[in-house]
Amino acid sequence: MAEVKKETATPRKKVYHLKKVDGEWQVILREGEKVIKKFKTKDEAMAYSEALAERQGGTLLVHASKGKNKGKFMK
User: Fold this and answer.
1) pTM recorded for the entire structure
2) Going by C-beta distance under 8 Å and a sequence separation of 6 or more, which residues neighbour residue 69?
3) Is the confidence at residue 47, as pLDDT, over 70?
4) What is the end-to-end Cα distance of the chain in Å, rounded?
5) Which residues contact 68 (CB under 8 A, 6 or more apart)?
6) How confident is the model at residue 9 (pLDDT cuts 50, 70, 90)?
7) Under a CB-based contact definition with an 8 Å cutoff, are residues 37 and 29 in contact?
8) Positive or negative, the Cα torsion across 26, 42, 53, 75?
9) Which residues does 7 contact at the CB level (< 8 Å), separation at least 6?
10) In a designed cystine with 25, which of 35, 45, 56, 59 is the match (CB 3.0 to 4.6 A)?
11) Is the pLDDT of residue 40 over 90?
């Protein structure tokens, strides 16, 4: 009899998005609709979201809020 190998799915890495919406910086989990946390400044949001991504073994993607790169990922 032939052995049947079970394929184990590798867990998807958590991706956190940092973007500016209505004047506030928001941290959102990939494809999530719920905002994890809101901040008034980008610096506060960056510090929090970088630490969160590191603790959770994830990645942080920062959306540019203005200029020629508006809407594109910065990290």
Assistant:
1) 0.74
2) none
3) yes
4) 50
5) none
6) low
7) no
8) positive
9) none
10) 45
11) yes
